[in-house]
Amino acid sequence: MNGRWTFRLARAGDGKAAFDITVRAMRAFGNDHYSPAQIDGWMGERTPDFYEALIANRRMTVAERDGAVVGFVDAEPGELTRLFVLPQEAGSGLGGRLLRIGLETARVGHMGPIRVEATLNAEGFYRHHGFRRIGPAEFSHGLGGPRLEVVLMEL
């Protein structure tokens, strides 16, 4: 704990919070790069149950403030798969803290670079934290909807 947030492994029941954070973050931060229709389409068939299935893998960490989930990170060996914070947490340092946690998870059982498919609005965040762009891509994780233009990056 740093006085502002506590971090813990996500547990059953956190799926709705992770879903809501993803929707709110994409609508707040993605609107300079993606249309509302693209964002809605990208969310596709995601539901809180989609996030509950991810939580069952035990690789998702959530950040809480005053008992409420305000951000999360999910990773698998060699890849940071999701990192989202509530809009009011932007610029607070929470994203960087979650990134470090996610990188630790991504390094378990993996040697070599860590990759991320960054949304266009998040490219600067990842660059600031040492990632480099290795090419354009289309978002390939998740369910439904049209594929979204993203940036493939690695650290």
Low-confidence blocks of residues:
none
Pairing-aware structural class of the strands and helices?
alpha+beta
N-to-C SSE string, H for helix and E for strand: EHHHEEEHEHEE
CATH class of one domain: Alpha Beta
Going across the biggest sheet, name each strand in turn: 1-2-3-4-5-7-6
> What is the end-to-end distance?
26 Å
CATH architecture of one domain: 3-Layer(aba) Sandwich
Q: Please, how many helices? A: 5
Question: How much strand content do the residues show?
Answer: 25-35%
Q: What name goes with the CATH superfamily of one domain?
A: Gcn5-related N-acetyltransferase (GNAT)
- CATH fold category name of one domain: Aminopeptidase
Quick tags:
single chain, 155 residues, alpha+beta, Aminopeptidase, seven-stranded mixed sheet, 5 helices, 33% helix
Q: What would you say this structure looks like, in words?
A:
- This protein has 155 residues and is an alpha+beta fold.
- The protein has a domain at 6-111: 3-Layer(aba) Sandwich (Aminopeptidase), CATH 3.40.630.
- Helices cover 33% and strands 28% of the residues.
- It contains five helices and seven strands, in the order βαααβββαβαββ.
- The protein has helices at 15-29, 36-43, 48-55, 94-107, 123-128, and strands at 6-9, 60-65, 68-76, 79-85, 115-119, 132-138, 149-154.
- α4 (94-107) links the parallel β4 (79-85) and β5.
- α1 (15-29) packs across α3.
Please outline what is shown here.
The protein has 155 residues and is an alpha+beta fold. 33% of the residues lie in helices and 28% in strands.
